[in-house]
Amino acid sequence: MPDPVVLYTRYYEECLEGFPASIEFIDQLSAVNLPVEPLRLPGLPTIPVPIYLAGFFVDWRLRPSEGVKAYMISEQVIDRWEEKGYPKPFISPSTIDWPTGNYLIHFATYASGCSHRDLKYFHEHRDAVINQFLDLTDFTDEAKRFVKTKAFKWHRYLLPGGWEEV
């Protein structure tokens, strides 16, 4: 079977159409399965499901320009969590940047071979994890509401086949 990165690159447009850009948590089939299947199109090799990351995008252009970098949000949250005595449940957030100026802050990864234990933990504690994260940020109440009600979901990660529009 060809390398998935080669397939995502060669059949990028087909992947954009064949794999949803995001998946709502309510549509998740189980703690360890998302409602997405490998892409099977006539005359093409089977294209495996890409990585999906559970998190939300931050438009960095809308953040205060005080020299703050995207990864600093995650670092700040972890520092504040440690200061509070490591309350559980908690998942350390990670950050991935997009060239569009957006950053994805994420807590869980759905991919071939990923840890079912981690996915189950995230699934069981998802609401508490995002609430704890947001309580430890300097986000406005409006931004926190937006993250919880609109932005927090599974997001497709097709890189490096091409940059996705967010």
Element layout with pairings:
Elements: H1 4-10, H2 12-18, E1 22-23, E2 51-59, H3 70-83, E3 94-97, E4 102-110, H4 116-135, H5 141-151, E5 153-157
Antiparallel strand pairs: 1-5, 2-4, 2-5, 3-4
E-strand count? 5
Largest sheet: 5 strands, antiparallel
What is the molecular shape?
globular
Q: List low-confidence stretches.
A: 161-166
Structural class from helices and strands?
A: alpha+beta
Ends distance: 30 Å
Strand-residue fraction? 15-25%
Identify the quaternary structure here. single chain
Using the CA coordinates, give the radius of gyration.
Answer: 17 Å
With helices defined by DSSP (H or I, 4 residues minimum), what is the helix count?
Answer: 5
Helix amount: 25-40%
**What topology, given as strand order, has the largest sheet?**
1-5-2-4-3
SSE sequence, one letter per element: HHEEHEEHHE
Q: What does the average pLDDT come to?
A: 87
The number of domains? 1
Keywords, please?
globular, 36% helix, alpha+beta, 166 residues, five-stranded antiparallel sheet, 5 strands, disordered C terminus, single chain, 5 helices
What does this protein structure show overall?
- This protein has 166 residues and is of the alpha+beta class.
- It has one domain (4-157).
- Helices cover 36% and strands 17% of the residues.
- The chain is built from five helices and five strands; from the N terminus they run ααββαββααβ.
- It has helices at residues 4-10, 12-18, 70-83, 116-135, 141-151, and strands spanning 22-23, 51-59, 94-97, 102-110, 153-157.
- Strands 1-5-2-4-3 form a five-stranded antiparallel β-sheet.
- A hairpin with a 4-residue loop joins strand 3 (94-97) and strand 4.
- The model is unreliable at 161-166 (pLDDT under 50).
